[in-house]
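Sample pair:
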Amino acid sequence: MIKNKTDVNPKLEVITNSNSFRDLVYVGENQLEANDIVLKLRGEVLNSPTRESIQIKPNEHIFDEIGQFINHDCNPTCKVLGKTIVVINKLSKGDSITFDYNLNEYVVAFPFYCNCHHKMITGRLKNSLLDTTPMNEPWVDRWNERFGQEEFAYGISPNNFLKEQLLKFKPGNILFPAEGEGRNAVFAAKLGWIASAFDISIEGKKKAERLAESEKVDIDFQVGELQTLNFKNEQFDAIALIYAHFPANLKSQIHISLNQYLKKGGYVIFEAFSKNHLQYLEKNDKVGGPKDYDMLFSLDEIKADFANFDTIELEEKVIELNEGLFHNGTGSVIRFVGRKK
């Protein structure tokens, strides 16, 4: 049973914590016990989640001016019961008001990698579906058809931004997700990196291994989706995501899941089409890229997906592409280089 010791709401204060996040903290003198009410949520009720909303029913999410500062914790102090935030065990002066997003939210609008237990926070539905929902057969067939042609779809030269970044770093172990026909992994191997890659296309693997053989280097190229492969935690010094446009419902989850395979202090190098790219694609379909707006990227999405990274470079930029058959012309891209904290 929910109870409330007093007729007055407990004292709450928004502070900036050691991770530079705003945090809702209990500052009352009296300790609160299990099921004591901490906060009654008031505000606009929405039919879909936002970054700041709290789910109160299966299809209802509330934006509360104070509740928006309640952070996630895998060992939370509180829980959500409808429009009420209540204590789980006890709450003392100085304790943060937290709840477990993965237990309360069906879908987290902006998935992230938590600081408390280093796991992916996506919500109840996405968290359970990530490891069991494969990319569908038409998606796989599409890429096998493209990579099954004799000519290399995106050429055999490395991506310019990747090349520029790799030349700055000491070679180590590097992973290339959605690597297609291997042009970037082969380039890294030529620089002395131990290059691993994966893609859903068996035809892409064949082309990549043929290219590696012609350049007299070795790469480890696996076929499959990330959750089915045998990479080890903290195996890599760098992860390069070059035009790795995953299905919209999976892209953020894959980014966050990749985090576990990167060493602390390791780097992510990222270039892909931005959400503003569609205007360029409409003018020139030869520039390539997804026509699905949700498969494209924004600066905010990259910040959320790689929240536990120090940003070295992050920008949206209009560039000229000249990569094989399918990346030719003016396009809008997001570029990101980050170092894992």
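DSSP finds nine helices and 21 strands in the chain.
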